[in-house]
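Re: duplicated header lines in exported structure tokens

Our pipeline writes sequence and tokens for each protein into one text file. With two proteins the header for the second block appears twice in some exports. Here is an export where it did not happen, for reference. First protein block:
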Amino acid sequence: MGATNTTAAVSNRPAEKQPVGVSTLPAIHGPADPSFQQFLSRIGAQKGTALELAPVADRLFAVVSEDLTGGNQDVQAKRELEDARQKCRDGNPFPLVALQWPRLVIDDEGEAALFDPRLELHRFDHLPDYLLDVVLSDDAPQLRLDWWQRIVLAGFFAEPIGEINCAGATGCGKGLSVSLGICLWFDVFPVSRQHLTSRSFDHVQTNLFGEVRQWMRRMEHVDRGLILNQSIGDGERHYIKILNPSPSASTAGEAFSGAHGPNTLYVFDEASAVVDEFVVNAQKNAMKIVSLSNPRTLFGLFRDGFKPIEQSDRNRIGVCSGTVGMRLCVSVGGSDCANVRHQRLRRPVAPLGGIEINGRRFDEGEPIPKEYKPSVKPLIDNQIDIAQFRAICAKPDQREVDVFAHGKFPTEDPQKQVVMASWLQRHIDAWHVGIPVTAFGLDVARSKSGNETMLAAGGPRGLNRLYPWQKDDVIYHAEETIRIAATEYGIDLRKGQNPVCVDTDGLGGGTADMLKRYGVWVIEFHGGIPSPVAPRQYGNWRTEAYATLGRRLNPDDMWGQTTWALPPGDTALYAELSAPEKVYPRGDALRFSLSPKRKPQGHQASSSLVLSVEEKLGRSPDRGDAAVYLFVAVRIRENMNEFFAEYSGPLVYGSGESIEAGELTRAMNEEQKRENAATGNAGQPQDPAQAAITQWIGDLTGVAPGVTANDGYQVAPTAGNVASNVEADPDGTPPRMSWSDVFEDW
């Protein structure tokens, strides 16, 4: 009896166990269709009521039909989405872009015509067919993307492309195309690891990762996983995350070589400021590497990556062999951007030089009436517009215009640079293990995650090595300096015989005080005080420090026959040494200072006539400053300052003699002639530099060298000096030693 009742109870609840749904219905052709009438009867039976079906039949049919149609549409949409994802994996990402971000699809036919990539066919001369076919495909919807952004995005999913280098003008939209590529990569590859790196953790978190998060949230169809402050993903095999270790960490390089997987992607933002070692380690396991930056440097892997395609100025996009597959190189100027090409404005004010809109001329600074705004509204949000482009082009420094307006890499300028990049290679080639260390330069940074504290070790022959670390502790800075000197070079700094030059203007003051307590010979460097060596030529000590090292490296200066070794492969150091430029304040044509290390507080970037070094490099010049402080210590320890004080070489190297240099040389020669006349010496006036150097070598070697007709040095072979192993000529004439002989033996 109990069993029967239970069965009956269950059979009386069909609605809970067998709910009616559109998936159980056959095709229905109208309210009078027998299938539909049967469906209505089932509803009435289940509710236990006698429904008056006729009055509601039409309405119910409309609802059911809508459900059926909607269900079919969902299936169709899913099929279309999966087809687009497969096309993306096969190399064409644009149908998927249209589905994921409908706001990028252009509905206005007039605007769509402005974005037709066929209008820029002359730009594609050097693109391979596998990229060209995708960018110009009829299957590609009309999107609010510039033609070059399409090329970058196509490169993400082109199988032959293993590296993408994108160098662009300020605000051109590099981040947009790369951010879209990162989001699509996450969407179409369920197993994928993506790592984002920049010059600092804060920079990548705020800029590239911040933009990726925005576009990820706008995607219509994606399982995003968790979106956090440093990562996006749903597991250890499917993520996007920030990877920005300290370059000074012992395991920094390994962080880029341990993420193995079939779809591992590395993205380097501000790549010209990223340590090359990071990129080299990423190449070991990456499926693809994307690097983007302003083209602001003469050195590094990012800069070198463009050299194979630099056949002409017009050919600024091309493909060449890379380390990871083929390398797509894209250089973008402001004139390549839609908002500049079509004279669009973010603010309704006529730009520098004025503008013509629909036949009416508006002069510079004139407000643009509301009825004209639709004709000049931006075509791409947040992209550089015609006003910003013209403002950059009006800068007095042509190299700044080339970099930030036209997206071109800078060239050397002998009129402005105190250290030329072309001087450095011979000094790099001269480096070898065991460069003698007698002095140190210390640039202190009080930071655990930003700039690095940098110690330079070297001597008169060059820079042996740089030691970076990150710590917020003056005691640690002092003790680490003492430890490195002792363990690496056997030097006990506490004896006070080997100087350490410390920049005490900023954060190094406490470290300098601590070193002095230990008995260390500390040279306190104050960059803003007058030049101790040549105040008539150098505006301050910082200028003197860089300029004198520049003269030491200059092959055309008095040190040209000798080298000052620089460690090989340190492109960051080379860029930092050559970054500062001469500034002639208040119209003084003879006495110069240097471009500031960083922009003054409260000033906008590039707001002054001169870019700061940090703006130019995209980072603090810690390595260059440490090397310069080292040379200050070497000059003081070896009594070399007299050479730079007694002789002022040309202010402009490599481009002829400057006015001041000529005047100084003539004045020195006239003074020497008067001395010769007074002493009865009728010889030619001696170069004061040669005289000073001659005396210095004598002090070093313990002998009195003399100048011969061929500019060699006669050194008597006496015991205990550097020439003691040099035999005299058979006729008894003392051997002649060249510059290179003297310095090599020393």
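Second protein block, exported in the same file:
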Amino acid sequence: MKQTFFARKILSVFLLSNYLAGCASAPASITPAISTLASSSSTPTPTAAPSLAPTLPILPTVTTELSTATQSPTPWVGLQADQPISFIKGLDMTSWSSSPYSGKLTDESLAALKETGAEWVGIEINLTQSKHGSTFMFKAQDRTINDVTLAHMIKEAHALGLRVLLRPFVDLTDDPGFDTDSVGLGFNEAQWKTWFINYTYFMLDYARLAEDNGVDMFSLGSELLATQQRKNEWTRLANDVRKVYHGPITYQALWDYRSATPITYQAQWDDRLAAPMDSFYLSWWDAVDYISVSFYFKLINKVDPTLQDLEAGWARYIKAFQQLSQKYGKQVIFMEIGYPATSRAIENPGEIYGTLDTNIQARAYQVAFNRLVGQSWLKGMFWFDWEDNVYQGGLCDPRPTPKGKPAENVLRQAFGAPLVQLNNQPPVLPAFSPDHIVSYDLYSAPATQLFNPDASWNVTFSESSIPAYQNQKSLNVKFHPGGAIVAPMKALDTSPYQWLEFYINPSESNPRLNLKIEEVGGMTFEHTYYIDTCLCAEGGKIEANQWTRVLVPLDHFDADKRKLAFLALSMNVEFIDHPIVMSFSNIRLVGLK
């Protein structure tokens, strides 16, 4: 996916970001996966995705060696390069964290992915290099999944009966204005040679891991647009990979939507309908088994398009990909295809613009299935994306994940899985009696103030009586983009507590906040979701200039039963590009006695 879709920026080596999320029911009733998004049992289970018609085609079933984790102890056998593959029903799993794919929430998220009817999971691996002109890349401790965790994740996916695609991605860490597609721009021949030597080293390392763990498909790379015309180097890499990995290989190509020099992102998306398709015609497609592409094309220039409008918008792309497949004699995989849950999802499928609109997202999903299923040139699709935290998504989430939104039911219907109930009612937060709880105050004027100005960044904060909550002083914070207030936790054991509770009075409605934690000993955990007002805010929303109670279960961001060194609240740089003032009161951890 385009790096700009989600700003892949880590703001501190030792603090990790988590979007606050989750509903606030008692711990005994908190269950993972889709059940947190379901309405009460008195609501009948729907038989079709609401307000979505006509009926979607059901995709053909893919036979796998294992259908559940307990049916057979036989080791998973990955696909061979020449082995026929049924239509791919896939989802891309991503991790926007400094501890990628680690912890129990990833395993639970994989299980929830399987429940959608998906039969493939694409696992993204982020390598890093500092700038687009660098010739060296590396495995970053705070961005790249370690090999042990990756092997565990592959094993868990196989135990669920999921086939696995590994897709390495090169992420730029210190190059504002440039993305993965710019890697290699301006290289001379010596630089190209050095870059490919280093890149080949890492690809062979991952190819061996893929072979050892029965991975079912391996991608040579993702969206390295400026490198895509280097036929000799890519062909040599493909041949080298085949010596150590015997499954099917592919490469995820990116369309050429820009000139040799960067232009504004808005201009890139505005030109989507005019994007040339010939950049997909790589001279070395014969070196791989399948042609893979990222599909984030604009279908139509129209506000609130109908199903018929969208189906017509697919016509030119279907024709183009059919011609591409015929030219090279290979089928096409959409290794990424997706839409944000926004009003402008059709205009800008790779960016989060516009207002929240989950129905537009669902409509785009439906039309894609209607138009693409049965196309002989298409081998399948990996929908972007399904994050490594089971408590992501929901009806307040504008990001592209389908989880907990009408789009998930479109996906499930097409994949032949049972539908889920979508809860659009405000959450009912439990009230706490002082006699029945234990608590740990992070901020409670005038007695406690644990947030440390010296450990915080890009913020200014102070205590004030305006605005006041229950006649108490509040902690007034001016957040600049990416700013954070940090509270040292002094090895606090969170075992007695089940929730993080606070009251917030922001200058703008529904602010996007991250939660950051570090466990004692340096073991870090991060799961990317923002404060889901549908699930954890009193009344289901946070209004500007008034106090709202927020209650977030600790297990929703893997902060339960740990000894924490730090906890921080930060501004989500992905959604906000200007300062916002927020006031907080009564920030505390709460547990039942």
